[in-house]
Amino acid sequence: xxxxxxxxxxxxxxxxxxxxxxxxxxxxxxxxxxxxxxxxxxxxxxxxxxxxxxxxxxxxxxxxxxxxxxxxxxxxxxxxxxxxxxxxxxxxxxxxxxxxxxxxxxxxxxxxxxxxxxxxxxxxxxxxxxxxxxxxxxxxxxxxxxxxxxxx
Length: 152
What we know:
Layout: H1 3-6, E1 17-19, E2 22-26, H2 32-40, H3 43-47, H4 65-81, E3 85-90, E4 97-104, E5 113-119, H5 127-141, E6 147-148
Parallel strand pairs: 5-6
Antiparallel strand pairs: 1-2, 2-3, 3-4, 4-5
């Protein structure tokens, strides 16, 4: 799939979504320490979240800050190349990372985008509201018609 197959030429991807309890912005290297702390503190919670049932992520032994930085750099490059769109979920009060949203191509028949999200265990009450807000955002601001929300 080429980037133009994933999003149309000329489409300008939204760069933020703000709600009372969270704010999304593109994930990048500047989030490394907070992102690593967020997901490493919540491995079991994330693995119980729809979309993460295979146990391959988060890595049970975590990863080094350097390896996480490589991952965030890859997500930032995917965003710039329009191959995938990853957003960090921030607490609007203190700006701390409380989760992540991934919008990537899917190979699942009948779907045009894979939509995954997670939140820290300490913010578990935001899991469903975040997933629902992202679904609404996709309907109104993105070019896809058939998201794979992993049973949500």
